[in-house]
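Late entry, evening session. Most of the bench is empty. Finally got around to the prediction I had been postponing all week. Sequence below, unchanged from the version circulated by S.P.
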Amino acid sequence: MGLLQLCEQYFNTSNLYEVFQIPEKATEKEVKKAYHKLSLKIHPDRVSEDEKLEATEKFKVLGAVHAILSDKEKRAIYDETKCVDEDDLSFERDWSVYWRGLFKTVTVEDIIAYEKKYIGSQEEKDDLKSAYLNGKGDMDYILDQYQFDRLEHESRIKEILTEMIENEEIPAYKKFTNESNKKRQKRTAKIKKEAKEAEELKSELGLGNNSLEEMIKQRQQSRSIEMDSLIDDIAAKYGGKKTKATKRKTQSEAKGSKRKRKN
């Protein structure tokens, strides 16, 4: 999947400027500030366990977007064509190192300070309002957009949105005002299940508590193999050289065949 498709998947837009929530004429400083702000929000080290894997992917996408918008030549090409050169993008790059090269290291204290500053702020209210309108009042959608523990903040979020409805700041969508208990229970069960699965996967991958770099590397390796396999499928159809992925697969299949013959 290419960068624009990943932007659409994780940020609901394929427009790089909309991902960063900045105008097309934004300055280099504004681009960097937007990247810093968003990357802090979704930093894998400050989200709940059930959101870590997705946050890692989002973190990687934000890094790729910044790499384009901060480069004058790449940005000019994107502005003109609204396309990106996928060959020039390396998802194997260590985006945590890239991030640290631009900003200071994020500490636990930074994350806690940001959360305290964000919760109850006008910025949070604006984000919730935007999520409410985009999701037409669907709480599943709204909570999916929220940056902190969804179960912990669900009641407070509903109170904020209810007050906005009463003040006629947002319309009263039936999906929100008439949400059934069954739907709420289903959402709670899903979030708890995702948290459990994330913990199990983290354990399987052998990731520690400070696992951002390890997690990114794991996903990079997986994506690299998937991309090689896609190239191989195309090569098989139209002719071309095999990648390392196919060679590994062929060697593995050959070993499997030998074992079968021995048996």
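Two things to note before I forget:
The chain is about 70% helix and 0% strand.
The CA atoms of residues 50 and 195 lie 4 Å apart.
Will write this up properly tomorrow.
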